[in-house]
Specification:
Largest sheet: none
Number of helices: 5
Shape: globular
Number of domains: 1
Strand content: under 5%
Distance between the termini: 43 Å
Number of strands: 0
Radius of gyration: 14 Å
Helix content: 40-55%
């Protein structure tokens, strides 16, 4: 079973977190959402514009062997700010998305 088969389209008024079936790695998906928040990425925008990318990100998180380290890094404010990029299978994709303005937080300052 792929992660894509567990994602279901929802009306725009429901957030992306409710798109994952609870018994299919929701803890890993929570970590993904936390990392996306840290990078000022809007999961709903990623889902809206590139739903297959979000499914791929979620699938990689589910299979990731560094969940404990990821959780520890996310819970340690400021600790290992870029360390996650060395072990996260989604680092390149998340960094690329963060560099694109249309996936970022609406409140992000423009330069």
């Amino acid at each position: 079973m792929s992660i894509t088969s567990t994602l279901h389209p929802l009306p725009d008024n429901q957030d992306v977190k409710h798109r994952v079936v609870a018994d299919f790695g929701s803890g890993a998906f929570d970590l993904l959402l936390m990392r996306m928040e840290e990078l000022q990425l809007e999961p709903d925008e990623v889902r809206r514009i590139e739903s297959s990318v979000l499914a791929d990100l979620a699938g990689a998180c589910v299979k990731c062997e560094s969940k404990d380290r990821c959780e520890q890094d996310l819970c340690s404010a400021g600790a290992g700010e870029h360390e996650w990029e060395s072990y996260c299978p989604n680092a390149a994709t998340l960094s690329a998305l963060a560099a694109l303005p249309w996936f970022g937080a609406r409140t992000r300052a423009t330069t």
